[in-house]
């Protein structure tokens, strides 16, 4: 009975052009909860919202997105490192704009769980998270 909603959600996401790199979704200490995916008035673009939870010390992989991201820290303290910039530390209630294609990573630098609300305006049908070596 519990599998049916998960299967339906997977079918919906697969059929909607929303793709996320599985490595990013299943990293140690990081969990992602997909909240929203909706076409917008800008042709070929969609809005996507994801909640990302980081255990203490958890670090994302280096990655980029096929569009803009606004990261809003819901709780805890996160350090963001954007390619070509000094790291920036944000606490709950603070936000950061990440331009399209900019390689970045996020790290929980606090002693407790940290969470962000990531809002993306991205190209429809593209992989949301593009890992970078």
UniProtKB/TrEMBL annotation:
Family annotation (InterPro entries): Cupin_2, RmlC-like_jellyroll, RmlC_Cupin_sf
Domain of life of the organism encoding this protein: Bacteria
Swiss-Prot/TrEMBL keywords: Signal
Gene3D superfamilies: Jelly Rolls
Keyword Signal found: yes
Secretion signal span: 1-25
Record CDD domains: cupin_BLL4011-like (cd02235)
A Pfam family of this chain: Cupin_2
All residue ranges annotated as the Cupin type-2 domain in the record: 51-116
Protein name: Cupin
């Amino acid at each position: 009975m519990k599998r049916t909603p998960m299967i339906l959600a997977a079918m919906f996401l697969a059929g909607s052009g929303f793709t996320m790199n599985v490595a990013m979704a299943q990293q140690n200490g990081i969990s992602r909860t997909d909240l929203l995916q909706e076409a917008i008035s800008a042709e070929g673009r969609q809005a996507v919202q994801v909640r990302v939870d980081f255990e203490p010390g958890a670090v994302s992989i280096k990655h980029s997105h096929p569009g803009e991201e606004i990261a809003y820290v819901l709780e805890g303290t996160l350090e963001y490192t954007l390619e070509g910039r000094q790291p920036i530390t944000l606490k709950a209630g603070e936000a950061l704009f990440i331009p399209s294609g900019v390689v970045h990573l996020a790290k929980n630098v606090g002693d407790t769980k940290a969470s962000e609300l990531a809002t993306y305006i991205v190209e429809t049908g593209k992989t949301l998270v593009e890992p970078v070596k």
